[in-house]
């Protein structure tokens, strides 16, 4: 059976950033994978709760080991009573640009898989599965006209305490969601970095048979 035609043929480029920089795929992929990236510049535009829930709905449909669905999400939208607390969890570098985001979403994962009979066992894949949910979230944000930027630069223990996260859950990341803005919204030292990142060649990540790589 012939594979269906998709945009992003070898030699095709993404037009993200209005042509300021492009990405090129080595093999055919949908352009959604090339066009999605993680900007830091956001406008002040708020996001409605239904729009945010639509983005999280996509994350809900990510695959997971035994369909355990270990991901959990806690969120604050700019202007609500939780916003100063959520913003305060970020490190200084991230707080300087994330304050323009429309929402901050904390991604958590459960350390355990609970069987239908109620028995719990340790999950080896909870972080892996939550990472897949983040990927779905990021793509849906992009397809919906929003942008999402995932951050590891925050105080994990303060987040656990501030949100009342029990020991059975891991705090994985915090995601800023907002409408992409222009680079003049950023501090001067971040403007040169406001470009879609490239990827190493596919051959450097893939090996047939035995593992090859560093």
Q: What can you see in these coordinates?
A:
By secondary structure, this protein is α+β, with helices and mostly antiparallel strands. Helices cover 26% and strands 17% of the residues. The protein has a domain at 37-184: 3-Layer(aba) Sandwich (NADH Oxidase). The protein is built from six helices and six strands. β3 and β4 (120-122) form a beta hairpin. α2 crosses α5. It is globular, with a radius of gyration of 19 Å. The model is unreliable at 1-11 (pLDDT under 50).
**Compute the gyration radius: what is it?**
19 Å
CATH C-level class of the domain at 37-184: Alpha Beta
Shape: globular
Oligomeric description of these chains: single chain
Number of distinct beta strands? 6
Q: If you average the pLDDT, what whole number results?
A: 91
Number of helices: 6
Judging by the overall fold, what is the CATH architecture of the domain at 37-184? 3-Layer(aba) Sandwich
Secondary-structure map:
Layout: H1 31-35, H2 49-60, E1 71-77, H3 83-88, H4 92-98, E2 103-110, E3 112-114, E4 120-122, H5 126-143, E5 147-151, H6 156-163, E6 169-178
Antiparallel strand pairs: 1-2, 2-6, 3-4, 5-6
């Amino acid at each position: 059976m012939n594979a269906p035609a998709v945009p992003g043929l070898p030699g095709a480029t993404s037009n993200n950033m209005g042509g300021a920089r492009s990405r090129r795929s080595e093999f055919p992929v949908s352009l959604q994978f090339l066009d999605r990236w993680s900007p830091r510049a956001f406008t002040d535009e708020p996001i409605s709760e239904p729009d945010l829930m639509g983005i999280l709905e996509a994350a809900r449909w990510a695959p997971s080991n035994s369909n355990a669905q270990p991901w959990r999400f806690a969120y604050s939208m700019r202007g609500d009573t939780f916003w100063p607390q959520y913003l305060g969890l970020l490190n200084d570098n991230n707080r300087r640009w994330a304050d323009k985001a429309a929402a901050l979403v904390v991604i958590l994962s459960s350390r355990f898989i609970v069987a239908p009979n109620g028995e719990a066992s340790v999950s080896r894949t909870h972080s892996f599965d939550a990472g897949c949910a983040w990927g779905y979230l990021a793509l849906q944000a992009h397809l919906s006209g929003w942008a999402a930027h995932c951050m590891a630069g925050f105080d994990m223990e303060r987040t656990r305490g501030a949100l009342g996260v029990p020991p059975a859950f891991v705090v994985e990341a915090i995601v800023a969601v907002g409408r992409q803005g222009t680079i003049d919204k950023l501090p001067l030292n971040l403007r040169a970095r406001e470009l879609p990142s490239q990827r190493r060649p596919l051959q450097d990540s893939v090996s047939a048979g035995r593992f090859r790589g560093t």
